[in-house]
Amino acid sequence: MWSRRSSRYRHDASGLEELRARRREQESALRKARRQQQLVSKRLLREDSLVNGDGQPGVEIAAEPLSEQEVLQLLRDVQRGTEERKKLLSRLRQGLQHKETQQKFVRLEGSMRVLIGLFTSSMANIQMEAARCLHELSHSSDPTVAEACLPATSYLLTYLSGHSVEFTELCLYTLGNLVVESDAVRKQLLPQGIIPALASCIQSPHVAVLEGLGYVLSQLLQAREAPTKIIPHVNNMLLISQGIVSTLVLLLLELASMMSKAATGGLELLICPVLRCLSNLLAEDETEGCKVQIQDERLLVALFLFMQYFLQQHPFLVQECLWLLNNLTADEPIFCSAVLTLDLIPALLQLLPCSRMVTLLALTVLCNIAEKGPAYCHQLHQKALLPSLLSTLALSDGQVVGQSLELLHLLFLHLPEAADDFLSQAGLQVLEKHQDNPQLQERVRALRETYLQPAAVSPISRDSASAAVLPSS
Fold first, then answer.
1. Ramachandran angles phi, psi of 119, nearest 5°
2. What is the 3-state secondary structure (H, E, C) of the chain?
3. CA 176 – CA 88 distance, rounded (Å)
4. Are 358 and 323 in contact (CB under 8 A)?
5. Selection from 221, 246, 224, 222 nearest residue 234 by Cα
6. Rounded to two decimals, what is the model's pTM?
7. Residue-level pLDDT, tens digit, the chain, 473 residues
């Protein structure tokens, strides 16, 4: 009854109905928060990309809204191919910062055709300015404006392998803005090959491109049809073969380095899909027999930094971090050893009094570590695991108590002297509270009879446990 094998879990196949229910509630809350503008749902690359009148980087103040006649005249002048094309497009782009101008623009027959023609121009400066116009349109909160951009989506995908980092970044954020606004855009982008196009960006050495990639993924995963219509398009084995795992690890390390900066608003929307993608790829590794090697211990530091930073305002991100931590520690001892040598156990124990799912996931990670043997259990015992377990055993939640009992079993199995400490801390009285629970009574009885009897602890087992040495990480 106590046989246990560490398991890696996908988010969509956890086997816990309770987790699915809480996930649905969480996603509903996220959508509500986005509507209330508590989370950033669209991003605008304006200050970083504009230039002032003499060609130097600067922040432009948007001009007044343009009249329909002014928009029409600008489009006519641009089509004539004068040397002032870039200047005219710049004026149009400033006008498109206003909702009124956006709506007038998309209502004009042929306006998008002209803009897309300029976007596909062979002249890089004209192409970039047209891309900025499209980007302004993509930021609109009016669904009709987003749908008017539909003819541009195939070109946006094509240009993800663009001639400059700035241009590729602009295309990514324009796509990310469009997919969150319109079902029609998402339905068109999937058959056009948005997933393979995004996969091509994985190889980019530029952090700006990788951040843009993470933004588009986060917007796609927020769609209500993501589990059935978007995620199935992702070929995990192909992504693994292209080296996405190491790329995602480096991206998480880069994002962790940004946490010390003042402006971190909306960063959780980028971190979340990267965590989930990496966690599910590790689960794919187990089921498909394709070995994924991650040996960078800095990833653990990044995960605990995220959990500490977002625990109060965005607790959903703590669950994502723990899912990944579970998949990292499920089989490979390297990360179990690293959790100990980096002294991260106290931070993990501090999560036990949090929400039910956080408690369950933290206990699962601790079980993964304890399962590795006497040296690991010895370290856990030294980090005051038992007092924390006594607290979780005192709870009324059956699953939390059950996972705590499993951790106790592993601890007593590999470190028999821990049973004496458990008894000295009134552990038996805590166990007795659950002896009449039909779901727990058999496990409580097994613990008592196997480990908590005077004859259960032998001097030989004590000596072998204390002599164990923790493997080097």
1. -65, -30
2. CCCCCCCCCCCCCCCCHHHHHHHHHHHHHHHHHHHCCCCCCCCCCCCCCCECCCCCECCCCCCCCCCHHHHHHHHHHHHCCCCCHHHHHHHHHHHCCCHHHHHHHHHCCCHHHHHHHHHCCCCHHHHHHHHHHHHHHHCCCCHHHHHHCHHHHHHHHHHHHCCCHHHHHHHHHHHHHHHHHCHHHHHHHHHHCHHHHHHHHCCCCCHHHHHHHHHHHHHHHHCCCHHHHHHHHCCHHHHHHCCHHHHHHHHHHHHHHHHHCCCCCCHHHHHHHHHHHHHHHHHHHHHHCCCCCCCCCHHHHHHHHHHHHHCCCCHHHHHHHHHHHHHHHCCCHHHHHHHHHCCCHHHHHCCCCCCHHHHHHHHHHHHHHHCCCHHHHHHHHHCCHHHHHHHHHCCCCHHHHHHHHHHHHHHHHHCCHHHHHHHHCCHHHHHHCCCCCCCCHHHHHHHHHHHCCHHHCCHHHHHHHHCCCCCCC
3. 26
4. no
5. 221
6. 0.60
7. 554 445 666 655 343 344 444 444 544 444 444 333 333 356 677 644 443 333 344 444 456 889 999 999 998 888 887 668 889 999 999 999 999 999 999 999 999 999 999 999 888 889 999 999 999 999 988 888 988 999 999 999 999 987 789 999 999 999 989 988 777 788 888 888 888 888 778 778 887 888 888 788 777 766 666 566 666 576 566 566 666 777 788 888 888 887 766 556 667 767 887 888 788 778 765 545 555 667 788 999 999 999 999 998 888 899 999 999 999 998 778 999 999 999 999 999 999 998 899 999 999 999 999 999 999 999 999 999 999 999 999 998 989 999 999 999 999 999 999 999 999 998 888 888 888 888 888 888 888 888 887 654 444 344 444 444 555 54
What are the structure tokens assigned to 292, written together?
A: 């994924």
One-letter amino acid of 140: S
Look up residue 457 and give its amino acid: V
The type of residue at 80 is: R
Structure tokens belonging to residue 131? 């891309």
Query: What's the token pair of residue 150?
Result: 């539909």
Place of tokens 């952090």: 207
Token representation of residue 127: 């192409």
